[in-house]
Design a protein that fits this description.
Number of helices: 3
Distance between the termini: 55 Å
Largest sheet: 5 strands, antiparallel
Radius of gyration: 23 Å
Helix content: 10-25%
Number of domains: 1
Strand order of the largest sheet: 4-3-2-1-5
Shape: globular
Oligomer: single chain
Strand content: 25-35%
Length: 113
């Protein structure tokens, strides 16, 4: 009898809960800024993401850790590619910001695989 009473009290509450998966599925927070720009399941995805302050703005530096790929710098606010200060076949980047590491201030590591 006690179980029935508990069920009778809880039934209206349980029926009022919204069980629509579209509204109850939690949204995973991004692992790091601009994560949505990368396919984290494919080879060559970011393995190290550091945050830097450069020219008065926050930037992320994305290292894919493999195979002569560029180490890319993105503006954090817009997720826009800025330059590649190192990496590539020559290891000197794309030439657009050769002094990035001399001028930028390291803030923190946002993601590391």
């Amino acid at each position: 009898m006690y179980r029935f009473a508990v069920l009778a009290v809880l039934a209206p509450t349980l029926m009022a809960v919204d069980c629509d998966p579209a509204t109850t599925t939690p949204v995973e927070p991004e692992l790091f800024p601009c994560e949505g720009n990368f396919d984290m399941s494919e080879a060559g995805h970011p393995v190290l993401v550091n945050l830097y302050s450069w020219n008065g703005e926050e930037h992320i530096v994305v290292d894919k850790g493999c195979c002569d790929q560029y180490i890319d710098v993105y503006e954090t606010a817009t997720c826009t590619f800025v330059c590649a200060p190192e990496g590539g076949l020559t290891a000197f980047g794309d030439g657009r910001c050769p002094t990035f590491y001399d001028e930028a201030t390291f803030l923190e590591t946002a993601y590391q695989e």
